[in-house]
């Protein structure tokens, strides 16, 4: 698949030109919000794409001049009546050479795909990155970045363990680490952490092995530092949600050290953000406040008000745990004010979960910690109503929060109904944190077993099977 020479050279050799047509299609959505819309559209037609804000940015910058076949089907579904040319894409034959005129491969048959060994994957901007990564993962020495199956709750999805290799890392390895982070997050959004955590530790080890092996370019080193740090945070969160607080603390510390070594304030802010959340859940509210404030200090020059809003909520959670109502209310007010500015292109990719629902859910946790269970129930109910269906784990979490707050505010029948809905969701979500919350709700409701629905909830909660 060598590059043509002479006057017939394909358009991929020309400088990238911004795709203004595609940018207009995004409208007022942030790149992260638009990427989420792309993923939802893909699920509607049975496609699987790992679209994120970075991919949207590459398309709009003109780096991706023609999407792969899966993305093309998704975009046609999203914008009926528009052709790829209408969306600002170049004809496939001018971008990918004569081989592109062949019929597209079957959607999930990547076993025979190969990548020319003489080209670094990071330079092949004419093709969507997922296909190249999957191809890279299937053969040769780079099988170190292969995919092995993990099927939580019967899902066909998998977490890609990266097996470190001795050779120096290039753009393809950095891209595979980044892809591992995205896919782990997607699985966690849908299924929760249990069943994923143990397998996700393998790609984390390999990512740091790649860093140790070194690279030929500083840009790749920077990407590997950021990718390994984000992977450490993702694996730490899986441990956190699985109730393994010690493991989570270790992974977050590893991410923070990586951020400090690389001089990466965005990664540092993320590591402190998760550390604050863990400290609150582990009963260390003062540490939660300090970590949240450290995160805000790291993030102050990152131009993302949504990030600062989330960090203010982390601080509010710590103040609530300390019983400091004034400190909590001040942080909540700051969080709402910052959130009202809306999303922006500066918002980190990992913040795709943070919208109106998460804001309401985190505020519910604050009021609950302050003993205002009725007010907490109002916010938890709002969180359940507003949550995007993609985030199955979060819907289960907010529903469990709602059940607990209703039980604590004298509404046992409503609490039992919400508890049963949360148990239904646990058929597809594995989360020790949510099970612990529902166990607390059951304890609160036992004296009111005669209330409507309570006995059914208590019996089912007692029979709930814990994942191995």
Topology record:
Layout: H1 20-26, H2 31-44, H3 53-61, H4 69-78, H5 92-96, H6 129-136, H7 171-191, H8 197-213, H9 218-241, H10 245-262, H11 265-281, H12 285-299, H13 305-321, H14 325-339, H15 356-369, H16 373-386, H17 392-408, H18 412-425, H19 432-445, H20 454-463
Structural description of this entry:
There is one protein chain. Helix 9 packs antiparallel against helix 10, helix 11 (265-281) packs antiparallel against helix 12 and helix 13 runs parallel beside helix 15 (356-369). The longest helix has 24 residues, at 218-241. Among the domains are: 1-100, no CATH class; 168-263, no CATH class. The protein is globular, with a radius of gyration of 23 Å. The model is unreliable at 1-13 and 96-166 (pLDDT under 50). The protein is mainly α. The chain is built from 20 helices and no strands. The N and C termini lie far apart (48 Å).
